[in-house]
Amino acid sequence: MVNKENKFNDIVTDNGERIRRICSYYSPNHEDRKDMYQDILVNIWKSLDSFRGDASINTWIYRIAVNTSLGFTGKAFKQMQMIVDVDTENLSLLFDEDTKEKLEQEAQLNQLQIELNQMSVIDKSLMSLMLEGLSMREIADVIGITEPNVKVKIHRIKEQLKSKLSGGKHE
């Protein structure tokens, strides 16, 4: 039991902020995010003994966090609003330098948030994991689809976002 507690505490210490960010993608409400965070921790604790190490611990935690968040938000997830924070480190993954220079940051973020909120459930999940900085392989493991499928979906989403955010004028 002590070993399990130590392992759990290490997981929470190493991944607590990452889990909180995932919660923030799935709920704009602070209290819901706290409840979601607790549910994720409970699910990690319950599943800790059954972790086989087939995937990395980080991928396993992301999978639990995403699945718990999806379950927590349930059917309301289709209408949920993804919150894009201005200081999101990995936001640059969505745009190349030319696109960033053409669009003003504030208007771009507002429009991006609108476009993200109109996406399907799977597309929202893909984008939230991409914004977290996961590799295509890790996203595939978390979502449960093939890596080539992840690459195609993310490429298409990026192209759609570029087109919509630049008024349909991009190369």
Q: What is the gist of this entry?
A:
This protein is mostly helical and 171 residues long.
Shape annotation: globular
At the fold tier of CATH, the topology name of the largest domain is Arc Repressor Mutant, subunit A
Q: What is the count of distinct domains?
A: 2
Structural class assignment: mainly alpha
Please explain how this structure is put together:
The chain is an all-alpha fold. It folds into 2 domains: 1-78, Orthogonal Bundle (Rna Polymerase Sigma Factor, Chain: A); 81-171, Orthogonal Bundle (Arc Repressor Mutant, subunit A). It contains 8 helices and no strands. Helix 1 packs antiparallel against helix 2 and helix 1 crosses helix 3 (57-73). The longest helix is centred in the first third of the chain and has 25 residues, at 2-26. The chain is globular and about 55 Å long. The N and C termini lie far apart (57 Å). The model has no long low-confidence stretch (mean pLDDT 79). Residues 116-161 form the RNA polymerase sigma factor 70 region 4 type domain. Residues 95-122 form a coiled coil. GO terms for molecular function: DNA binding; sigma factor activity. Keywords: Coiled coil, Sigma factor, Transcription, Transcription regulation. Residues 12-69 form the RNA polymerase sigma-70 region domain.
Keywords:
single chain, 171 residues, mainly alpha, Arc Repressor Mutant, subunit A
Topology:
Layout: H1 2-26, H2 30-47, H3 57-73, H4 97-102, H5 105-117, H6 121-131, H7 136-143, H8 147-165
Helix pairs in contact: 1-2, 1-3, 2-3, 3-7, 6-8, 7-8
